[in-house]
Write a structure and sequence with these properties.
371 residues, four-stranded antiparallel β-sheet, 11 strands, alpha+beta
């Protein structure tokens, strides 16, 4: 699918361009082809799909690593900026995404050779829920899903687990280095004291939890993502604060627009997080959210929906083909206060049927509201 012109203009990039910002985008575009954004981007190094970490065959590792290349592009964008024009740059790293390949025996997480020795002298601990007992509790359709298929490639043995996780962390290290380069460039050009940096991600990732790899389920490890907002203009007493309020990916656009002094279009969802960063204590903030994932990858992924509040997590796996009806074939209920790793499914416990019905009702109300 492609953005319509109206949709594109209503994105945060379109709004920033219209407000006089120098705009740049680097990396995974995600919707259609990035060429369609040439009209709202002064610097466009986006690419469709996932691309590859190295040029040519996935086994050969030719040329510069993609993460380092994106770092060079970020510096190039900044060198084209000046103090008289506000700027915005989005960098959508491929790292630490797996290298999608039809060759299942190629490196799953091809890292930059510059970091080949990183983590080689330590043993990566397995997650506590990687034990077989937690996988055995899952329904058959999850045991036979793509989550399990990819586990068998990446984590099937202790040696393979160590290789995959260390390479995964090496990819993250590569992104950290690029962030460091960007901050150094901001200092060099005199922009560091007036540039807000937001660091986040698109999804969580299984590293063997429940005997799974990938994502695509409502579990915390799959849906939780990092969020760091750095505003150098804040007083030092406000640095390093951790907020407990719920933030969602849909909050990024209105937040960035508010930092830029631009009103968000009505079509944009989410709420502005800037007041939280500034230390405000809002009286009315979201206490729950709705989750959905209908993509099935030709039956390899189980479609699911869910509800999460500040304590309870409800996952509802849907009958394939009946997603619109919301028909359940498996339910999960977790008390995150006492079971943050989601090890005990309370949906079948007679003592929690009232709570189960409560979260079902909340899920149904959310579902109706977001139609």
């Amino acid at each position: 699918n492609e953005f319509t012109e109206e949709q594109l203009n209503n994105t945060y990039l379109g709004q920033l361009k219209a407000a006089g910002y120098r705009t740049g985008f680097i990396g995974k575009w995600g919707v259609g082809h990035p060429k369609q954004a040439d009209g709202i981007l002064d610097y466009n190094q986006g690419f469709p799909g996932q691309s590859q970490y190295f040029e040519g065959d996935v086994k050969e590792k030719k040329g510069q690593h993609l993460t380092a290349k994106m770092g060079d592009q970020a510096i190039e964008f900044l060198e084209g900026c000046d103090a008289n024009t506000p700027f915005h740059l989005s960098i959508s790293f491929k790292a630490a995404h797996v290298q999608d390949s039809s060759d299942i025996y190629s490196d799953q997480f091809p890292s930059d050779p510059a970091f080949a020795d990183f983590y080689s002298d330590i043993t990566m601990p397995q997650p506590p829920t990687a034990a077989a007992e937690y996988h055995d509790r899952m329904p058959d359709f999850l045991k036979n899903s793509i989550n399990r298929d990819r586990w068998s490639i990446r984590f099937r043995s202790p040696a393979q687990f160590q290789k995959s996780v260390k390479d995964y962390y090496r990819l993250i290290t590569g992104a950290d280095v690029v962030v460091g380069r960007i901050r150094e460039q901001l200092e060099k050009q005199g922009f560091a004291d007036n540039t807000v940096i937001i660091f986040t991600s698109d999804h969580g990732f299984f590293l063997g939890e429940y005997g799974f790899a990938g994502k695509w389920t409502p579990h915390e490890v799959s849906i939780r993502i990092p969020l760091i907002v750095y505003d150098p203009r804040l007083d030092s007493s406000q640095r390093g604060s951790i907020r407990e309020e719920m933030a969602l990916a849909i909050d990024m656009a209105p937040t960035m627009l508010d930092y830029a002094g631009v009103a968000a279009p009505e079509a944009i969802q989410g709420v502005n997080l800037k007041p939280l960063v500034d230390g405000a204590e809002p009286a009315d903030w979201r206490t729950s959210f709705f989750y959905e994932h209908w993509f099935t990858a030709n039956g390899l992924i189980a479609p699911s929906e869910g509800y999460r509040d500040q304590r309870w997590k409800y996952g509802r796996y849907l009958v394939p083909g009946e997603e619109a009806k919301g028909t359940a074939r498996w339910e999960e209920l977790y008390d995150l206060k006492v079971d943050p790793h989601e090890t005990i499914n309370l949906a079948g416990d007679a003592n929690y049927q009232n709570q189960l019905q409560h979260v079902r009702n909340e899920w149904a109300q959310w579902r109706e509201a977001v139609k």
